[in-house]
Amino acid sequence: MLRENIISELKEKIKQNPNDIDNYKNLANYYIGSNDLNNAMLVYGEILKISPSDYQSLINLGSIYFFKKMYFEAIECYNKAIVTEPNNYASYYNLGNIYAEIDNFEASLSNYEKALKINPDKAEIYNALGYLYQDVDNLETASKYYLKAIEIEPVNYEYYINVANVEQKKGNNVDALVYYEKASEINPEDEKVTLCLANAYAAVKNFDKALKLYDKAIELNPSYYSALVCKAIAYCDINMAQDAISFLKEAIEIEPDKANAYILLANILVDEKRFEEALLIYKTASKILTKDPKISAFIANTYVMLGDYVQAVKYYKKAIKQAPKDNEIKLIYIEMANSYINTKLKGLQ
C-alpha cells in the first residue's frame, strides 16, 4: 500500500507540473529502487521527450538497457550522451562495457582508452581493461592493469582478487595466495573472499589452513554451495572420501539443480567401487545437463566396470552423438569394444 501511495503522489506532482523533469526523475529513481525497470524505462522515455539531451537520464536509461541485454538501444543512449557531454568519461566507459560483453575487443578497447584520456585516475577503468585482456588470455597485460587499479584504489579488495586470479591462471599459486591474503585483510568477513583464500591454500597443499577457511566461509553462509563443493574436493585431495561424500550430499540438498556436485559425488563413488550408486547419481546429473557428452561417457565407463557392455555401448554411442568431433570419446569406445571382443574370443578358445 505504501508503494502505491508514493507512486500516486509522484504521478500527481507530474500531472500538476508536466514539464518539471525533477518529478519524473524522482519517480524513475523510485521505480529503480523497487527494481521495477520496465516502468523506469517508460519514465526516462518521458523525460527525454521533454529534454532530449538530459545526460543523466541517457546514462541511466542506457544502463537499464544494458542490464536487460538490449545492447543496440544501450549503445544508442550512450552515443547520445557523448554528444551531450563529450568530456564525461562515463559514457565511453559504459560503451566499453557493452562492447566487451558482445566480444568486440577493438571497440571496447577504444572506448576504455577514450575514458582514460578524460579521467586517467579512475581505477574502475583500469580494472575493466584488466578484464578485457584477461578474456583474450593476455595475462601479462591484464595483470598490469589490475595492479594500476590497486595503485589508485588500494582498499578495493576485488582488484586484489583479480590479480590473484591471473596469477593462479599463470600457475603462480604462491603469488596468487599473497593477493588473496591482501583481499581477505581488507574484507575478512566476505564469504567469497574467504572461499578464494581457502582454494589458494588448497592449491599450495596447505590443507589444514584451507579446511579452516572453508569452515569459515560456510559459517558466514551455511547455504554456500560452492564452499561445500570446494571443501569436498579438498577432502578428496587428502584421501578422505567419506567426508567428501558427506559435503557433496549437503551441497546437492542446497542446490539440487546444479550438476557439478552430482558428477563429483558419482566420480568418488566409482573410485570407491560403489558402481550402482554412481550410476544413479550420474543419471540424475544427465537430467540436468541433457546434452553433456562427458556424463554419457561416465555412465558408459561405469557400465563397463559392471560388465554390462550392452548398456556401455548404448551410452558411448550417445556420447559420440552428443560430441561427434570428440576423438577421445571415440578412442575409449573403440578400446572398450576391442577389449570386449578379445574377452569373448578368449572364452571361445
Summary keywords:
about 80% helix; elongated; about 350 residues; single chain; mainly alpha
In words, what does this structure look like?
The protein has 349 residues and is mainly α. Helices cover 80% and strands 0% of the residues. It is built from 20 helices and no strands.
Could you give a short description of this structure?
This protein has 349 residues and is mainly α. 80% of the residues lie in helices and 0% in strands.
Secondary-structure topology with pairs:
Blueprint: H1 2-16, H2 21-33, H3 37-50, H4 55-67, H5 71-84, H6 89-101, H7 105-118, H8 123-135, H9 139-152, H10 157-169, H11 173-186, H12 191-203, H13 207-220, H14 225-237, H15 241-254, H16 260-271, H17 275-288, H18 293-306, H19 309-322, H20 327-348
Helix pairs in contact: 1-2, 2-3, 3-4, 4-5, 4-6, 5-6, 6-7, 7-8, 8-9, 9-10, 10-11, 11-12, 12-13, 13-14, 14-15, 15-16, 16-17, 17-18, 18-19, 19-20
Helical coverage, percent range: over 70%
Using only C-alpha atoms, the radius of gyration works out to 27 Å
Average residue pLDDT: 92
Categorize the overall geometry. elongated
* Structural class by helix and strand composition: mainly alpha
> What proportion of the residues form beta strands (DSSP E)?
under 5%
| DSSP E strands, number | 0
Q: What are the low-pLDDT stretches, counting only 5+ consecutive residues below 50?
A: none
Biggest sheet record:
none
Order of helices and strands: HHHHHHHHHHHHHHHHHHHH
Task: Give the number of helices.
Answer: 20
Give the N-to-C terminal Cα separation.
86 Å
